[in-house]
């Protein structure tokens, strides 16, 4: 069984005396249902489970009065003896709650009543064109948590890396000392494996159980096809082909030297006016993440972001690699990255940062100066350069030479190197990106 950080989040939620109904929001197949059910059965005397996608008739439970006693009566009648509502010992799981807007509205009344906990999951909450929206979203009466596929640390756990090894890495980062050779070698291998497997639970479990990359690739491509089916099935009719074209253009977008998203690469003559809403649909579905250009390298980053200049990355690196040509996984595992090497490793770091709930920013000027990522780290605006091998971080050096202009005092280079510091640049192995947690 895969160990997930969301379990700690749910434990903290349950320990809170003023907890509200919680919604696990995330892309399809990232493990929301399993996490909710596993936690529920381990922590409650009674678990009542309703899946609105598999059992659309269950929507009728919420078709009338939203009084909690009335809902319990209807649920008991509909589900039979499997539904036991024991005050303060029952959790109600509402799976795929976006399929039943009235159930979302009912969360307010469960919150006010307080006798029963509610865990809901939602894959396409708020995505344009997906079903009916709730008559009333229970603002202030629900807690929404973004859930992602497995992050790199969870992937390491799944592959048997002990916590003591991660603690050692943290200590090396804190005192800025090189990583011991054995751990360094193991982490480099794990990172390349994560680059091609990613974090979708089914893909990770298959990899851990069999090490069969062909089976992993089939799972990943099935997920990508399911996403494309969602685009055709649920998007507004006029946007269906546009959304799919946006999604399928991502590998071409990232193959460019200047990875700024260009609508013209979707289709000749395409414009933001025609495709911006379609691109937003894919992002809202949790499939992609946006990395915005900054007007200046200075905090606050969000306040200096340029809304119409951005890169787009796949939210899961494994799915991104699966969209490339056959043989790419083999090449990456053997260190042969060819023309896609910068795209692969930038998407890998975007995956790691976004799963840490970091918003993504970069900095590019028309002069050619470009910083792959810019983050808030230890209270400072910090450029992060990503190099597949060693690489000369020219842009970082330029920025550091002019602190009065760029407001930057130190920088980080992520590369296939061991840890060290020189001339204001902290060089870290690529695999240590997940440890940059300080804000």
From TrEMBL:
Residue ranges constituting the DUF4143 domain according to the UniProt record: 228-389
SUPFAM superfamilies hit by this protein: P-loop containing nucleoside triphosphate hydrolases
InterPro entries: AAA_14, DUF4143, P-loop_NTPase
Pfam families, per database record: AAA_14, DUF4143
AAA domain boundaries: 18-156
Identification of the protein by name: ATP/GTP-binding protein
């Amino acid at each position: 069984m895969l160990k997930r950080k969301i379990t700690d989040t749910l434990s903290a939620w349950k320990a809170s005396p003023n907890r509200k109904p919680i919604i696990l929001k995330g892309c399809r197949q990232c493990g929301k249902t399993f996490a909710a059910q596993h936690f529920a059965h381990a922590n409650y005397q009674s678990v009542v489970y309703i899946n609105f996608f598999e059992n659309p008739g269950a929507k009728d439970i919420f078709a009338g009065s939203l009084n909690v006693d009335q809902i319990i009566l209807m649920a008991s009648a509909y589900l039979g003896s499997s539904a036991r509502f024991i005050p303060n010992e029952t959790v109600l799981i509402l799976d795929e709650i976006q399929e039943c807007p009235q159930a979302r509205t009912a969360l307010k009344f469960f919150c006010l009543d307080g006798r029963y906990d509610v865990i809901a999951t939602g894959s396409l909450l708020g995505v344009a064109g997906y079903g009916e929206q709730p008559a009333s979203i229970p603002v202030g009466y629900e807690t929404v948590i973004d859930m992602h596929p497995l992050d790199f640390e969870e992937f390491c756990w799944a592959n048997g890396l002990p916590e003591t090894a991660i603690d050692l890495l943290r200590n090396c980062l804190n005192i800025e000392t090189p990583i011991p050779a054995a751990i360094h070698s193991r982490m480099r291998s794990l990172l390349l494996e994560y680059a091609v497997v990613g974090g979708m639970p089914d893909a990770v479990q298959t990899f851990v159980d069999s090490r069969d990359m062909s089976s992993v690739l089939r799972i990943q491509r099935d997920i990508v096809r399911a996403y494309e089916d969602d685009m055709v099935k649920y998007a507004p009719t006029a946007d269906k082909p546009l959304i799919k074209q946006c999604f399928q253009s991502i590998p071409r977008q990232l193959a460019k030297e200047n990875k700024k998203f260009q609508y013209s690469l979707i289709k000749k003559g395409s414009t933001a006016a025609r495709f911006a809403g379609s691109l937003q649909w894919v992002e809202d579905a949790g499939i992609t993440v946006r990395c915005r250009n900054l007007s200046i390298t200075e905090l606050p980053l969000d306040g200096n972001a340029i809304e119409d200049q951005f890169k787009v990355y796949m939210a899961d690196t494994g799915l991104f690699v699966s969209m490339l040509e056959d043989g790419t996984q083999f090449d990456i595992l053997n260190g042969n990255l060819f023309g896609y090497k910068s795209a692969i490793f930038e998407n890998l770091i975007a995956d790691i940062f976004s799963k840490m709930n970091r918003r993504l920013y970069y900095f590019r000027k028309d002069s050619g100066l470009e910083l792959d990522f810019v983050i808030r780290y230890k209270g400072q605006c910090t450029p992060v350069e990503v190099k597949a091998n060693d690489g000369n971080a020219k842009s970082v050096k330029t920025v550091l030479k002019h602190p009065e202009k760029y407001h930057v005092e130190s920088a980080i280079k992520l590369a296939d190197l061991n840890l060290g510091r020189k001339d204001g640049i902290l060089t870290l192995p690529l695999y240590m990106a997940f440890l940059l947690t300080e804000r």
